[in-house]
Each structure stands twice: as C-alpha cells, then as structure tokens.
Amino acid sequence: MSIFLFSFAGKQIFKRVEDNRRNTVLTITGSDSTSGAGVQADIQTISALGGYAVSVITSITVQNTIGIQDFYNIPPEVISGQIEAIVNDVQPQAVKIGMIRSAAAVQSITWSLRKYRPRYVIYDPVIISSCGDVLMSDDTVDCIKENLLPLCTLVTIKKKSAEYITGRKLSSASDMFDAACDILNYGCQAVLLQQGTSMAEYSMDILVRRGEHSCKYVSTPDMYNSYERHGMSSNLSSAIATFYCKGNDLYDAVTKAYNYVNQSFLSHTDLIGRASELYNEFVNEVAEHFKSNRDVRFYADSLNVSSRYLAQVTKRIAGKAPKTIIDDYLCHEAELLLSSSDKTVQEIAYGFSFSSQAHFSKFFRKMTGTAPSEYRRTKQNKTSYE
C-alpha cells in the first residue's frame, strides 16, 4: 500500500513539473520600475493566464509615470548567463523578447536561441517609443534584421517601428501588407502588424504568415487608439506566448491574446503619479517665495522631490523648465508694479531681492526685450492716450 501511494504521489509531482515546463514562458526584456511594461508586466500577464514566467533582464531603466530618465544596459555575457541558467534548468517552451538596446546583446540572445532552440520565439521590437524617440542604434536594428528575425515564430510590431525597419510610409492596408511581407523576408514565420488600418471605431491589425499570399485582419474595437498606452504591446506579446504554450495555433493564440488584453484594458487602471498635484504645489510655492528665492533647488527641496523630477513634471504639464516658470512669474509681477504703482525701479528691484537696479534691469530686458523704465513709459503713454 505504501509503495502504491509513493508511486501515485511521484506521478502527480512529475505531472505538475511537466505542466509547469509546458506552460513556462521566458521573457527577455528590460525592467520597468512602474510595472506598466517590461519584465514586471510580462510576469503579471503570463501568470494571470496560467503560465509560469521566468525572466532575463536586458536593461534596467530609471523611470516613473513621467517617462524614462536613463538606461543601464546589462552586459551581453550576463544576459547569456541568465538565459543559460534558466534554460538548462527549466526549459521554457516559449520565449518572449522585448527591449534589446545593443547589437552585442542581440548577438548574445541569438546565440542562445540557436543553441537551445525553444519551440516558440515571439519578438516585440521596442524601436520607437510612444513619444516618437528612437531607442536603438542603426547597428542594433541591422543586427536584429540579420540575426534575430530569422529565429522568430512571430514578430509583433507597431506601425512606427515597422516604418523604421522597412523604410516605408504606411498609410493604407496595402502598405501594411507590403511592410509585413518585407519583415517576413528577413526570415521570421509570421508578422502581426499593429495599428494596421482604421474603420470608424475599429482598428484592424494585420496578421501575415510565411507562404500565404493574403493577410488576416484582427479586429480590436476596444483597443482602438490605445496602442500608445504604456505596456499595451508588451502585454499582448506575452499573452500570445502564453497561449502558444497552451497548445493554440497562431491565429487562435493571437485572437485569444487580443480578447484577454481587451478585457484587461477595460478593467485596468494605470498607475497615476503625483505630477498634476505637484505642479500645482510648485506654482503655489513660487507665488509665495518668488520675491526671495529663484533657485529651483529651493522649490524642489520644499516639495521633497529632486530637481530633475520637478523639471520633468513642469516640462510635461507646462512645456517649460522650473526656472522659466519662476522667471515668468517674477516678470509678470514686475510688469504689474511698473504699470500700476509709484515705486521706483530701484525699489522694485530690491523688493524682488535683486542685488542692484542694474541687475534687475538686465533680467527684465532679457525677459521682455525692453528696459523697465521704457516699459513703464510705454504703459503710461498708452493709458494717457486711452
């Protein structure tokens, strides 16, 4: 009896191990501190769909809800070491690849893929950011075309990145199909081109498989105009990889992934930073202290943030640097005093903590293009005329 129970328990454990291996997805991408995209978001998506996520980090980003401030790329030998450690032990069925920022990293990953030959390789190229910034060098893109794309089961790519890779301007369904075929010619098995074409409230993405002379359209009504939402494309490619592991073919995996991402999009709430609140607090601080302090660091310290973060907030909301906002506010107040008070220019200068009238006049001329006395005279003449 005990031998029977031991044998039965052993079989159950072995079955669970096999199930885990069958549903294991390796994500190779960058880290995102906000968990909206990158490896953190991939792990969430894969786990939510019943897969088991393992990961390799290619780049560490310094970012928040305002955006990316810096990149720290992981050395190629460390990337290949991470892949080897995971694949030797866990043997994932599918590999999802996201951010790769150097040709050396691409070569390291492709060497590992050729060596270990995972069943499915899904690549989501992060070439153009949602802000339109190019995130890779031309050398890296060329290396991807030559070495990585031929190893891919599916390439999921957004319109801007497809335009960059193919050199085509994509403005019609025919353009999209031609671009997808161009990417197929690099050797991958299938291409999912997102933001394919639009009809009313529907977005029709294009799915093209090698050897087929036509494309399938994937209807995505709920995701229309949402592709630039942080992490949307990353979540989609991770979902496709997971559904591949579960035994779905290409079209079913893509369709189910869209359904999942649509549902999560409807119920998901983005992480909201304190940018708007902080900006209002900054403006209030300026109104209170502009006469005595025009140093950005003073305001950053008062708000308990770094000067760099404060600059990101003001740039995003007002399109101006903090110093510009401070100077604009001071100049506006100076204009009011010059046009509506009897104070001398010297009194105004000292009231705003300038070291001398000359210093204030230099600041005012730089801001307005005219000297304080000239500005006052012009305003008085205009008032007399009226």
From TrEMBL:
Positions of the HTH araC/xylS-type domain: 280-378
Pathway entry: Cofactor biosynthesis; thiamine diphosphate biosynthesis
Enzyme class: transferase
Cellular component, GO annotation: cytosol
Record flagged with keyword Disulfide bond: no
Keywords, in A-Z order: DNA-binding, Kinase, Transcription, Transcription regulation, Transferase
BP-aspect Gene Ontology terms: thiamine biosynthetic process
Domain of life: Bacteria
Protein name (record): hydroxymethylpyrimidine kinase
UniProt organism field: Leyella lascolaii
Organism phylogeny: Bacteria, Pseudomonadati, Bacteroidota, Bacteroidia, Bacteroidales
Gene assigned in the entry: thiD
